[in-house]
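pipeline: protein-struct stage 2 | run 1193 | Thymidine kinase
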Amino acid sequence: MHQFPKDIGWIEVICGSMFSGKTEELIRRVKRAVYGKQRVQVFKPKVDDRYDETQVVSHSQLKLTSTPIERAEEIFYHLSSDTQVVGIDEVQFFGPEVVQVCEALAYRGVRVICAGLDQDYQGRPFEPMPQLLAVAEYVTKQLAICVVCGNPANRSQRLVSSEARVVVGAAGAYEARCRRCHLGEPTEATPPQTMELFD
Ligand SMILES: Nc1ncnc2c1ncn2[C@@H]1O[C@H](COP(=O)(O)OP(=O)(O)O)[C@@H](O)[C@H]1O
Ligand SMILES: Cc1cn([C@H]2C[C@H](O)[C@@H](COP(=O)(O)O)O2)c(=O)[nH]c1=O
Ligand SMILES: [Zn+2]
């Protein structure tokens, strides 16, 4: 990562498919900011209650204390005047106003780190991510591993039968797939790999 200038704000976006390590990367950056004695606050959408109601939790069970909110504007009610870094996980679950909120924070001098899906289960851009990517200073695109063929994966395959755009879930409801193996509709799960090396 670059040498950042002091006293000005900016927006960092960590995007990619499910299981690509977005939350792990968010947690890594937040940890390093804390080592740097920065005052950090982390937010996540209330709808994301799959592992925990308040904590941000990665698929590998790394955890981070956060404040769950329903609307992005609520960040301003919770924001302390001395906060230097704001982290937002699952940013795709907020409405379009999250873009103005991130911009307002950055103009105030805050470093804003957002993590979220760039594509939905059909492979369509997941709004408001395209707008956020357009105004961000720094963009990191993460890739998972396709569970069908082992190639780098940029898509999230839905495994449960629903056409709603928002269906909260983790392993069992979605799996990582590359563009060749991805289907734009829900399908059966790929048989799991044995993980005996890690037992
Ligand atoms: N197909 C996969 N490819 C890569 N990592 C996977 C896969 N399935 C499960 N994982 C696990 O998911 C972790 C990433 O979790 P997380 O940071 O929560 O991802 P994201 O926020 O992008 O969904 C990896 O370190 C790994 O332990
Ligand atoms: C593809 C897709 C995903 N979701 C949901 C499923 C999970 O709850 C989150 C993504 O979490 P992760 O940290 O990136 O693993 O989003 C959805 O609602 N709609 C979709 O199309
Ligand atoms: Zn594949």
